[in-house]
Amino acid sequence: MNRVLVIDDDVELCELVQEYLEPEGFDLETVHNGEAGLQLAATGSYVLVILDVMLPGLGGFEILRRLRAAKEPAARTPVLMLTARGDDVDRIVGLELGADDYLPKPFNPRELVARIHAILRRTRAEPEAAITSPSSARLIVGDIELDAAARTVRRAGESLDLTTVEFDLLAVLLRTAGRVVTRDEMVREVFGRKFTAYDRSVDMHVSNLRKKLGHYPDGEERIKTVRSMGYIYAVYASGDSEKHNS
């Protein structure tokens, strides 16, 4: 059974989440303080952690920071953060620290279920599907090489440590290098949901991805923002600009 850890001091909310997730096949474990939550999350024995920002004692951001710095597999455990509605700062900070997605409180439990399934679809690529899927191609654009089957990325031969979301966004951008990918396309393909006007998640993940990729050797930015539309992965102006190998 899929084990999900909920770290939230709102007992009634935890009971509501359990009511909706257990029929979906999830085995929930709930904890109401940060220290205990971090100890459980650090075991790496959960398919997902639902983490509230506001917690007594150790706060949600610090839990997330320590979890991402922990050993594998805990460091790669998907995290869905619960934030206060309208508090963009919390959402931005959470995404910068490595949260996979966020959901503002109060939320519709059905949306929570949908978000969880979308996250798990991204993080559970079946080996067989990876071998036969077109997205499993080895993509080389400039000095970036992405192997979707092995889920590795190299820049000029050096391995890059990307989150699951960053990896999937980069795969979308490399497959469409040289053309604009709209935010709607990216959110649908990577997050598995519709894009809304106030959804900043894709922008924050792209920002984090930019920092990790760095610029081209000539200083050109790899991922460019196209105002009011989306993003484009710039093809480096050299003889070996883009190759797609299976």
Main traits of this protein?
23% strand; disordered C terminus; alpha/beta; Arc Repressor Mutant, subunit A; five-stranded antiparallel β-sheet; five-stranded parallel β-sheet; 9 helices; 13 strands; 246 residues; Rossmann fold; 2 domains; globular
Shape: globular
Query: What would you give as the CATH superfamily of the largest domain?
Result: Response regulator
Overall helicity: 25-40%
Run of helices and strands: EHEHEHEHEHHEEEEHEHHEEE
Tally of alpha and pi helices: 9
Can you list the strand order of the major beta sheet? 2-1-3-4-5
Beta-strand content: 15-25%
Q: How many extended strands? A: 13
Low-pLDDT segments, ≥5 res:
126-136, 238-246
CATH architectural group of the largest domain: 3-Layer(aba) Sandwich
Brief characterization of the structure:
It is built from 9 helices and 13 strands. The protein has 246 residues and is an alpha/beta fold.
Protein model, in words:
The protein is α/β, with parallel strands linked by helices. The protein folds into two domains: 2-123, Rossmann fold; 127-245, Arc Repressor Mutant, subunit A, CATH 1.10.10. The protein has helices spanning 11-21, 34-41, 60-68, 88-96, 109-123, 127-132, 164-175, 183-191, 201-213, and strands spanning 2-7, 26-31, 48-52, 79-84, 101-105, 138-141, 144-147, 152-155, 158-159, 180-182, 223-226, 230-233, 242-245. The strands form three sheets. A five-stranded parallel β-sheet has the order 2-1-3-4-5, with helices on both faces. The chain has a five-stranded antiparallel β-sheet with strand order 9-8-7-6-13, covered by helices on one side. Strands 10-12-11 form a three-stranded antiparallel β-sheet. The longest helix is centred in the middle third of the chain and has 15 residues, at 109-123.
